[in-house]
Design brief:
Layout: H1 3-49, H2 68-74, H3 77-108, H4 115-123, H5 130-140, H6 147-155, H7 169-197, H8 201-209, H9 214-225, H10 227-242, H11 246-251, H12 263-273, H13 277-302
Helix pairs in contact: 1-13, 2-13, 3-7, 3-10, 7-10, 10-13, 12-13
Amino acid sequence: MSTETLTAGRRRRAPLWGGRFQELGMLLPSLALIAAFLLLPFLSSFRIALTNERLIPRPVPARFVGLDNFQKVLTDHDFWQALWNVARFTVMVLPVQCGFALAIALLLNQKLPFRNFFRGLFFLPAITSMVVVCVIWATLFQYPTGPFNQIVGFLSFGMVQPIDWLGDPAWSMPAIVLLSAWQAYGFQMIVYLAGLQGISDSLYEAASLDGANRWQKFWHVTMPSLRQTHVFVLIITTIQAFKLFTQVNILTQGGPRGTTETVVHYMFSAGFVNQRLGLASAVAIILFFIVLAVSLVQRLVVRDRK
Protein backbone atom coordinates (compact mmCIF):
# COMPACT_ATOMS: atom_id res chain seq x y z
CA MET A 1 0.00 0.00 0.00
CA SER A 2 1.42 3.35 -1.01
CA THR A 3 2.20 6.20 1.32
CA GLU A 4 -0.40 8.36 -0.43
CA THR A 5 -3.16 5.79 0.29
CA LEU A 6 -2.26 5.61 4.01
CA THR A 7 -2.23 9.38 4.28
CA ALA A 8 -5.64 9.66 2.60
CA GLY A 9 -7.08 7.06 4.97
CA ARG A 10 -5.78 8.96 8.02
CA ARG A 11 -7.31 12.16 6.66
CA ARG A 12 -10.70 10.46 6.21
CA ARG A 13 -10.63 9.08 9.74
CA ALA A 14 -9.45 12.29 11.40
CA PRO A 15 -12.74 14.22 11.10
CA LEU A 16 -14.63 11.19 12.42
CA TRP A 17 -12.50 10.89 15.56
CA GLY A 18 -12.51 14.65 15.99
CA GLY A 19 -16.31 14.65 15.84
CA ARG A 20 -16.52 11.85 18.38
CA PHE A 21 -14.32 13.72 20.84
CA GLN A 22 -16.40 16.85 20.28
CA GLU A 23 -19.62 14.94 20.99
CA LEU A 24 -18.09 13.42 24.12
CA GLY A 25 -17.02 16.85 25.32
CA MET A 26 -20.57 18.15 24.91
CA LEU A 27 -21.96 15.18 26.86
CA LEU A 28 -19.50 15.40 29.74
CA PRO A 29 -21.34 18.13 31.74
CA SER A 30 -24.59 16.16 31.62
CA LEU A 31 -22.83 12.89 32.44
CA ALA A 32 -21.07 14.54 35.37
CA LEU A 33 -24.38 15.81 36.78
CA ILE A 34 -26.01 12.41 36.33
CA ALA A 35 -23.09 10.73 38.08
CA ALA A 36 -23.03 13.25 40.93
CA PHE A 37 -26.76 13.37 41.66
CA LEU A 38 -28.00 9.93 40.55
CA LEU A 39 -25.34 7.29 40.10
CA LEU A 40 -23.12 8.03 43.11
CA PRO A 41 -26.03 8.40 45.61
CA PHE A 42 -27.52 5.17 44.29
CA LEU A 43 -24.25 3.31 44.74
CA SER A 44 -23.81 4.88 48.16
CA SER A 45 -27.22 3.53 49.19
CA PHE A 46 -25.88 0.00 48.66
CA ARG A 47 -23.10 0.67 51.14
CA ILE A 48 -25.46 2.23 53.69
CA ALA A 49 -27.95 -0.63 53.33
CA LEU A 50 -25.29 -3.06 54.54
CA THR A 51 -24.75 -1.14 57.79
CA ASN A 52 -26.79 -0.05 60.81
CA GLU A 53 -26.09 3.62 60.07
CA ARG A 54 -28.43 6.15 61.68
CA LEU A 55 -29.66 9.45 60.29
CA ILE A 56 -28.01 11.31 63.21
CA PRO A 57 -24.52 9.87 63.82
CA ARG A 58 -24.00 8.21 67.20
CA PRO A 59 -20.82 8.12 69.29
CA VAL A 60 -20.51 4.44 68.32
CA PRO A 61 -19.65 4.23 64.62
CA ALA A 62 -21.91 2.32 62.25
CA ARG A 63 -21.05 -1.34 61.81
CA PHE A 64 -21.44 -3.79 58.96
CA VAL A 65 -24.60 -5.92 59.30
CA GLY A 66 -24.65 -7.62 55.90
CA LEU A 67 -28.11 -8.41 54.56
CA ASP A 68 -29.89 -7.96 57.91
CA ASN A 69 -31.69 -4.83 56.74
CA PHE A 70 -33.00 -6.58 53.62
CA GLN A 71 -34.15 -9.50 55.76
CA LYS A 72 -35.98 -7.18 58.15
CA VAL A 73 -37.74 -5.43 55.29
CA LEU A 74 -38.78 -8.60 53.48
CA THR A 75 -40.12 -10.18 56.68
CA ASP A 76 -42.02 -7.08 57.81
CA HIS A 77 -45.79 -7.32 57.37
CA ASP A 78 -46.05 -3.52 57.12
CA PHE A 79 -43.75 -3.49 54.08
CA TRP A 80 -45.82 -6.08 52.25
CA GLN A 81 -48.99 -4.20 53.15
CA ALA A 82 -47.44 -1.02 51.73
CA LEU A 83 -46.39 -2.87 48.56
CA TRP A 84 -49.90 -4.28 48.15
CA ASN A 85 -51.38 -0.80 48.60
CA VAL A 86 -49.07 0.61 45.92
CA ALA A 87 -49.95 -2.21 43.54
CA ARG A 88 -53.65 -1.60 44.18
CA PHE A 89 -53.19 2.13 43.64
CA THR A 90 -51.33 1.49 40.36
CA VAL A 91 -54.02 -0.82 39.01
CA MET A 92 -56.71 1.74 39.90
CA VAL A 93 -54.97 4.90 38.72
CA LEU A 94 -53.67 3.63 35.35
CA PRO A 95 -57.01 3.33 33.53
CA VAL A 96 -58.45 6.46 35.18
CA GLN A 97 -55.49 8.75 34.57
CA CYS A 98 -54.46 7.46 31.14
CA GLY A 99 -58.06 7.14 29.92
CA PHE A 100 -58.90 10.67 31.01
CA ALA A 101 -55.69 12.00 29.44
CA LEU A 102 -56.47 10.29 26.13
CA ALA A 103 -60.05 11.58 26.13
CA ILE A 104 -58.95 15.18 26.76
CA ALA A 105 -56.20 14.86 24.14
CA LEU A 106 -58.74 13.67 21.55
CA LEU A 107 -60.97 16.62 22.41
CA LEU A 108 -58.19 19.20 22.25
CA ASN A 109 -56.87 17.75 18.98
CA GLN A 110 -60.05 18.92 17.24
CA LYS A 111 -60.29 22.27 15.48
CA LEU A 112 -61.81 24.21 18.37
CA PRO A 113 -61.86 27.97 18.98
CA PHE A 114 -59.24 29.07 21.55
CA ARG A 115 -57.68 25.59 21.34
CA ASN A 116 -54.30 26.66 22.68
CA PHE A 117 -55.94 28.40 25.62
CA PHE A 118 -57.83 25.23 26.58
CA ARG A 119 -54.67 23.16 26.21
CA GLY A 120 -52.92 25.39 28.73
CA LEU A 121 -55.95 25.36 31.00
CA PHE A 122 -56.20 21.57 31.06
CA PHE A 123 -52.44 21.28 31.65
CA LEU A 124 -52.57 23.63 34.63
CA PRO A 125 -53.07 20.93 37.34
CA ALA A 126 -49.85 19.19 36.25
CA ILE A 127 -47.75 22.26 37.06
CA THR A 128 -49.56 23.00 40.32
CA SER A 129 -47.73 21.96 43.48
CA MET A 130 -49.01 18.67 44.87
CA VAL A 131 -49.06 20.23 48.34
CA VAL A 132 -51.44 22.94 47.13
CA VAL A 133 -53.59 20.34 45.37
CA CYS A 134 -53.77 18.23 48.53
CA VAL A 135 -54.83 21.20 50.65
CA ILE A 136 -57.61 22.08 48.18
CA TRP A 137 -58.83 18.50 47.86
CA ALA A 138 -58.73 18.04 51.65
CA THR A 139 -61.40 20.74 51.78
CA LEU A 140 -63.40 18.98 49.06
CA PHE A 141 -63.15 15.68 50.98
CA GLN A 142 -64.12 17.26 54.31
CA TYR A 143 -66.47 15.12 56.41
CA PRO A 144 -69.42 15.47 56.71
CA THR A 145 -70.14 18.85 55.07
CA GLY A 146 -67.51 19.03 52.30
CA PRO A 147 -68.44 19.85 48.70
CA PHE A 148 -68.18 16.23 47.56
CA ASN A 149 -70.58 15.09 50.25
CA GLN A 150 -72.91 17.93 49.32
CA ILE A 151 -72.87 16.72 45.71
CA VAL A 152 -73.47 13.10 46.75
CA GLY A 153 -76.37 14.15 48.96
CA PHE A 154 -77.89 16.28 46.19
CA LEU A 155 -77.64 13.58 43.53
CA SER A 156 -79.05 10.91 45.86
CA PHE A 157 -81.79 13.18 47.22
CA GLY A 158 -80.34 12.70 50.71
CA MET A 159 -80.61 8.91 50.61
CA VAL A 160 -76.82 8.38 50.78
CA GLN A 161 -75.16 9.26 54.06
CA PRO A 162 -72.03 11.52 54.05
CA ILE A 163 -68.85 9.62 53.19
CA ASP A 164 -65.69 9.90 55.24
CA TRP A 165 -63.49 9.98 52.16
CA LEU A 166 -60.14 9.98 53.98
CA GLY A 167 -61.17 8.19 57.20
CA ASP A 168 -63.04 5.20 55.79
CA PRO A 169 -60.80 2.27 54.71
CA ALA A 170 -63.16 1.52 51.83
CA TRP A 171 -62.93 5.04 50.39
CA SER A 172 -59.47 6.31 51.35
CA MET A 173 -57.58 4.72 48.44
CA PRO A 174 -60.19 5.63 45.77
CA ALA A 175 -60.04 9.22 47.07
CA ILE A 176 -56.24 9.26 46.68
CA VAL A 177 -56.60 7.75 43.19
CA LEU A 178 -59.07 10.43 42.12
CA LEU A 179 -56.89 13.24 43.43
CA SER A 180 -53.71 11.83 41.86
CA ALA A 181 -55.28 11.18 38.46
CA TRP A 182 -56.67 14.71 38.29
CA GLN A 183 -53.38 16.34 39.27
CA ALA A 184 -51.08 14.35 36.97
CA TYR A 185 -53.09 13.62 33.81
CA GLY A 186 -51.74 16.74 32.10
CA PHE A 187 -48.38 15.18 31.29
CA GLN A 188 -49.97 12.13 29.65
CA MET A 189 -52.36 14.46 27.82
CA ILE A 190 -49.44 16.32 26.21
CA VAL A 191 -47.79 13.02 25.22
CA TYR A 192 -51.02 11.79 23.64
CA LEU A 193 -51.47 15.11 21.83
CA ALA A 194 -48.00 14.72 20.31
CA GLY A 195 -48.86 11.17 19.25
CA LEU A 196 -52.18 12.22 17.72
CA GLN A 197 -50.55 14.99 15.72
CA GLY A 198 -48.10 12.45 14.30
CA ILE A 199 -50.86 10.36 12.70
CA SER A 200 -51.16 11.01 8.97
CA ASP A 201 -54.46 12.41 7.74
CA SER A 202 -54.25 10.04 4.78
CA LEU A 203 -55.05 7.12 7.10
CA TYR A 204 -58.32 8.75 8.16
CA GLU A 205 -59.14 9.65 4.54
CA ALA A 206 -58.59 6.04 3.48
CA ALA A 207 -60.80 4.85 6.34
CA SER A 208 -63.54 7.29 5.26
CA LEU A 209 -63.39 5.96 1.71
CA ASP A 210 -63.88 2.46 3.12
CA GLY A 211 -67.02 3.66 4.92
CA ALA A 212 -65.62 3.66 8.46
CA ASN A 213 -67.54 5.63 11.07
CA ARG A 214 -66.01 7.71 13.87
CA TRP A 215 -65.71 4.78 16.31
CA GLN A 216 -64.14 2.51 13.68
CA LYS A 217 -61.60 5.20 12.81
CA PHE A 218 -60.68 5.52 16.49
CA TRP A 219 -60.38 1.78 17.08
CA HIS A 220 -58.68 0.76 13.83
CA VAL A 221 -56.61 3.87 13.02
CA THR A 222 -56.01 5.99 16.12
CA MET A 223 -55.36 3.25 18.69
CA PRO A 224 -52.89 1.21 16.57
CA SER A 225 -51.06 4.38 15.55
CA LEU A 226 -50.65 5.32 19.23
CA ARG A 227 -49.18 1.95 20.21
CA GLN A 228 -45.70 3.26 21.07
CA THR A 229 -47.28 6.24 22.84
CA HIS A 230 -49.37 3.85 24.94
CA VAL A 231 -46.21 1.95 25.91
CA PHE A 232 -44.41 5.12 26.98
CA VAL A 233 -47.39 6.50 28.90
CA LEU A 234 -48.03 3.16 30.62
CA ILE A 235 -44.45 2.79 31.83
CA ILE A 236 -44.09 6.41 32.97
CA THR A 237 -47.41 6.36 34.81
CA THR A 238 -46.51 3.10 36.55
CA ILE A 239 -43.20 4.51 37.75
CA GLN A 240 -44.97 7.62 39.05
CA ALA A 241 -47.59 5.47 40.80
CA PHE A 242 -44.97 3.46 42.67
CA LYS A 243 -43.50 6.73 43.96
CA LEU A 244 -46.79 7.74 45.64
CA PHE A 245 -45.90 9.73 48.76
CA THR A 246 -46.98 13.37 49.05
CA GLN A 247 -50.73 12.75 48.92
CA VAL A 248 -50.48 10.07 51.60
CA ASN A 249 -48.11 12.04 53.80
CA ILE A 250 -50.35 15.12 53.81
CA LEU A 251 -53.83 13.62 53.82
CA THR A 252 -53.79 10.24 55.59
CA GLN A 253 -50.32 9.51 57.02
CA GLY A 254 -50.78 5.94 55.78
CA GLY A 255 -54.15 5.45 57.49
CA PRO A 256 -56.81 4.51 58.14
CA ARG A 257 -55.44 1.23 59.53
CA GLY A 258 -52.60 1.18 57.02
CA THR A 259 -54.86 1.09 53.95
CA THR A 260 -52.98 3.96 52.23
CA GLU A 261 -49.47 3.19 53.49
CA THR A 262 -47.04 3.15 50.55
CA VAL A 263 -43.51 1.90 50.07
CA VAL A 264 -42.06 5.41 49.82
CA HIS A 265 -43.93 6.52 52.94
CA TYR A 266 -42.70 3.37 54.71
CA MET A 267 -39.15 4.26 53.63
CA PHE A 268 -39.63 7.86 54.81
CA SER A 269 -40.82 6.68 58.22
CA ALA A 270 -37.90 4.28 58.57
CA GLY A 271 -35.28 6.84 57.55
CA PHE A 272 -36.51 10.19 58.87
CA VAL A 273 -38.91 9.29 61.67
CA ASN A 274 -37.19 6.23 63.14
CA GLN A 275 -33.74 7.39 61.88
CA ARG A 276 -32.84 3.91 60.60
CA LEU A 277 -30.97 5.03 57.50
CA GLY A 278 -29.65 1.56 56.66
CA LEU A 279 -33.15 0.10 56.68
CA ALA A 280 -34.50 2.94 54.54
CA SER A 281 -31.69 2.41 52.01
CA ALA A 282 -32.58 -1.27 51.80
CA VAL A 283 -36.21 -0.33 51.07
CA ALA A 284 -35.07 2.07 48.34
CA ILE A 285 -32.99 -0.62 46.63
CA ILE A 286 -35.81 -3.16 46.79
CA LEU A 287 -38.26 -0.60 45.37
CA PHE A 288 -35.84 0.19 42.53
CA PHE A 289 -35.64 -3.43 41.42
CA ILE A 290 -39.41 -3.90 41.76
CA VAL A 291 -40.12 -0.88 39.54
CA LEU A 292 -37.43 -1.99 37.08
CA ALA A 293 -38.95 -5.48 36.86
CA VAL A 294 -42.49 -4.17 36.42
CA SER A 295 -41.36 -1.73 33.71
CA LEU A 296 -39.51 -4.46 31.80
CA VAL A 297 -42.48 -6.80 31.98
CA GLN A 298 -44.79 -4.05 30.73
CA ARG A 299 -42.41 -3.30 27.87
CA LEU A 300 -42.24 -6.96 26.87
CA VAL A 301 -46.01 -7.42 27.04
CA VAL A 302 -47.10 -4.34 25.09
CA ARG A 303 -44.22 -3.92 22.66
CA ASP A 304 -44.75 -4.18 18.92
CA ARG A 305 -44.57 -7.69 17.48
CA LYS A 306 -43.73 -7.53 13.82
